[in-house]
From TrEMBL:
Domain annotation ABC transporter: ranges: 2-238, 251-492
The name this protein goes by in its record: Ribose transport system ATP-binding protein
InterPro entries (UniProt xref): AAA+_ATPase (IPR003593), ABC_carbohydrate_import_ATPase (IPR050107), ABC_transporter-like_ATP-bd (IPR003439), ABC_transporter-like_CS (IPR017871), P-loop_NTPase (IPR027417)
Subcellular location: Cell membrane
Gene Ontology MF annotations: ATP binding; ATP hydrolysis activity
Main subcellular localisation: membrane
GO annotation, cellular component aspect: plasma membrane
PANTHER family from the UniProt entry: CARBOHYDRATE TRANSPORT ATP-BINDING PROTEIN MG119-RELATED (PTHR43790), GALACTOFURANOSE TRANSPORTER ATP-BINDING PROTEIN YTFR (PTHR43790:SF9)
Bilayer topology: Peripheral membrane protein
Source organism of the structure: Nonomuraea polychroma
A Pfam family it matches: ABC_tran
């Protein structure tokens, strides 16, 4: 159906694509793998008409094509779900879905038609609860992802490109996404699927193409039969142990965080727990179970009844106050909440920690830079140029910069919301080691992740949340993935 050959894309100072080949068959799920910065998003943006390639050819259903704009790509039958959601926050769900469609321009009468059509697509996606008239800016990241998907489906595309669609989704929502993908491919639609979760590739993928440093290093491997070790070594050029650091060996210190009876109406209720120095506590639960909101309340960025004590002292609300209290929050929606896109990598890493670099009233720029450099090297942020604008980094590398910020400086408690979202397997292993290392140095860690194996692999103790309430608390070593999933999905206690 689609043959891309010798695609080259040069950005100032970076050859993002250096002769990439890709061929996709009708009715297949073709997975595109590669480390952060390998060129995956750039390649699909060439297909989507966002970037014009410098060299190379694209043949679609036997004809040479050259998508010159996003609208042009849609007309060709390509629909794209981007890694960084490109919805318009101020518009409604229905307006976003039909942006660029004829419905959108017909005014009054067709607004009703558009809402009806939007409702149908949302229902098909299993998300009837998202109202077509709701303002997109008020939706959760997961709901935004659904709207983005609805928009792709509304175009009757022949080729749907999904750039890390599952990154914002919880377990049951991923299952729903896969159901839709299977429906589409059964109708002959081709899907190009990008993900850093290798288990997903096995489950949904037919064939795999691996990119490394802007080049195709493997074409059309079997998604089911190729050993993970082979895929990982193709991606990274080395053998990575995709494992968690060994548990135990850490001595737990005093209690650093105590949360008592935390409640916010309709969001979470009566949540109590504590985190000791050197301890990693994981929150498991579905999107919407209140996990991120609990983190925000602990941080002081969200109103809640109850008490939050850090080192035995009550935490006052307001973000500035909590930074001084020694807490760091790595938020879920990094682009909106955490990055200043036009500033450099260094500036983004040191943002919010500036007081630590202030000596006698001025900022120690040299130390700021050297610390930022050390952390970018530790997390392998690419390209290794701390003065580059963060906007031009790949999605996963931006995520690493957000994390680097919170690893900087002397914090007592680290709040991590989906720390490995969009981070490739190689860097993941390093990130796990860094988190463990911090705990070993006596920092308390409160971790939220949609990936149950990650919570179980990293945390010492796990709280299972369902509909805003803690339904289980226990040692991670005594739980397995199945038991946790059963609790978060069915509410069954262990
Ligand atoms: N607009 C841009 N200007 C300059 N460089 C860019 C731009 N967009 C991407 N790049 C660079 O091109 C390379 C490929 O980036 P791309 O976003 O395609 O990676 P990716 O494989 O999607 O990674 P990830 O898994 O982190 O999303 C990176 O080195 C990135 O920094
Ligand atoms: Mg990308």
């Amino acid at each position: 159906m689609l043959v891309m050959k010798g695609i080259v894309k040069q950005f100032p100072g970076v050859r993002a694509l250096d002769g990439v080949d890709l061929d996709v068959r009708a009715g297949e799920v073709h997975c595109l793998l590669g480390q952060n910065g390998a060129g995956k998003s750039t390649l699909i943006k060439v297909l989507a008409g966002v970037h014009q390639p410098d060299e190379g050819t694209i043949v679609f259903n036997g004809e040479q094509v050259r998508p010159s704009s996003p609208i042009d790509a849609i007309k060709l039958g390509f629909a794209t779900i981007y890694q960084e959601l490109d919805l318009v926050d101020g518009l409604s769900v229905a307006e976003n879905i039909f942006l660029g469609h004829e419905h959108a321009t017909f005014g009054f009468v067709n607004r009703a038609a558009a809402r009806k059509a939007a409702r149908e697509v949302l229902e098909r996606l299993g998300h009837a609860e998202i109202r077509p008239s709701a303002e997109v800016g008020r939706l959760s990241p997961a709901a935004k992802q659904v709207v983005s998907m609805a928009r792709a489906l509304s175009h009757d595309a022949r080729l749907i490109i999904m750039d890390e669609p599952s990154a914002a989704l919880a377990h049951d929502e991923v299952a729903n996404l896969f159901r839709i993908i299977r429906e589409l491919t059964a109708q002959g639609v081709a899907v190009v699927y990008i993900s850093h979760r290798l288990e997903e590739i096995r489950e949904i993928g037919d064939r795999v193409t691996v990119l490394k440093d802007g080049r195709t290093v493997a074409v059309g491997l079997s998604a089911r039969d190729t050993p993970t070790t082979q895929i990982v070594s193709l991606m990274t050029g080395r053998n990575v142990e995709y494992v968690f650091p060994p548990r135990g060996g850490r001595t737990l210190g005093e209690e650093v965080l105590r949360v008592e009876g935390l409640s916010a109406p309709g969001v979470f209720r009566d949540v109590s727990f504590s985190v000791r120095a050197g301890e990693i506590v994981g929150l498991a639960g579905l999107v919407g179970s209140g996990r991120s909101e609990i983190l925000e309340a602990v941080y002081g960025a969200r109103h809640a009844a109850g008490r939050v004590l850090l080192d035995g002292r009550p935490v006052r609300r307001g973000v500035v106050g909590t930074v001084r209290h020694g807490m760091g929050l790595a938020p879920e929606e990094r682009k909106a909440q955490a990055l200043i896109l036009d500033q450099s990598v260094t500036a983004n890493i040191t943002l919010g920690t500036l007081p630590e670099f202030a000596r006698f009233g001025w900022i120690d720029r040299k130390r700021e830079r050297s610390e930022a450099k050390r952390l970018s090297e530790m997390l392998d942020i690419r390209p290794p140029d701390p003065e580059r604008a963060i906007r031009t980094l790949s999605g996963g590398n931006q995520q690493k910069a957000v994390l680097a910020r919170w690893l900087l400086g002397g914090r007592k408690l680290l709040l991590l919301d989906e720390p490995t979202r969009g981070v490739d397997v190689g860097a993941r292993a390093e990130l796990y080691a860094v988190i463990h290392d911090l705990a070993e140095r006596g920092i308390g860690v409160l971790l939220v992740s949609s990936e149950v194996p990650e919570v179980l692999g990293l945390a010492d103790r796990v709280l299972v949340l369902r509909e805003g309430a803690v339904i289980h608390e226990g040692d991670a070593a005594e739980l397995d993935e199945h038991a946790v999933l059963d609790m978060i999905m069915n509410g069954r206690a262990a």
